Every structure is written in structure tokens, then in C-alpha cells.
Amino acid sequence: MTALTLPVRAGGRPRTGPSVPHVQLSQNSPDEVRERLKRWMTENLRDAVIRPSEISEPGALAFFLDGAAPPAGAVLLPPRLNAEFAHVHTDGSLHMALAEEDQRELVDKGWGERHPLYSPTVNVVMLYGPRTDGELRIAEAVIGASYRYATGHDL
Question: Has this prediction a pTM greater than 0.90?
Fold first, then answer.
């Protein structure tokens, strides 16, 4: 499986909430970009079940494995750690589970950050909400990496 290779994100990091709920407070996705992101996820995350998040704020669109276990060693989002692998917040930011090398790439290149409660058993990173068409393509690649981590296969 291929690891993420991301360009450096333009501009500074957005402000985010320091605790739970962990939300993006600045540089939010424009409504149109956010809606295109949710539509892309709905159409491309095959075999994922869409329903309300088990952990996120009300209104988050969450993606779950349904009846399939993640690969050995994969830790998905709490509380079950084996079902929900990503969700989109109403501000356009996302929380997701990612492989460690993809997490490092995401953080090092400025596209996201670890959740304030991150630990070996809380494998949650934030992907900042895309602001442009170019950033939407980056978000799709990162979401694809989360799907690969959760399912063991590419989109």
C-alpha cells in the first residue's frame, strides 16, 4: 500500500479548539466546497455505511465499516475502535483514523493535527477543511488513505 505524499499546505494552520469538541475555528471550508466534499465521500467510499457519528458533534456525517473487520492492527475511531473511520464536521473539517506514516505526513505538511485526546487507543487526527478545489483534491487523497487504513484496500 502506498503512503501519502502531500505538498506543503499554503498559509498558516487554522485555529482549532484546544479540547473536546475538537473543531476548526478559522479558515473554514466554503459551503460549496464542503458540500462537494460530502458528495464525493458519499459516492466514493464504497462499502461504507453513512450514519450519524458515534463520537462527533450533532450534524457530522460519519462513515462506518459494515460487517467487515478492519485489518489487524488498525485502530479506528472511538468508541468501538473498529467501525467508524471518518466523519465530516459541520465546519468542513474531518476526523479520521490514519496509519502512523500518513499521520506524520498530514501533520508535517500542515494539512492537519492530532486530536487533543490522541493516544495509541484514540487514533484520531483532524484534516483541516478544504478551502479550494486544489485542497479538495488533497482532502480526497487523505480520505482515501483513511479508507485504505480501515479496509485494507484502495478506493
Answer: yes
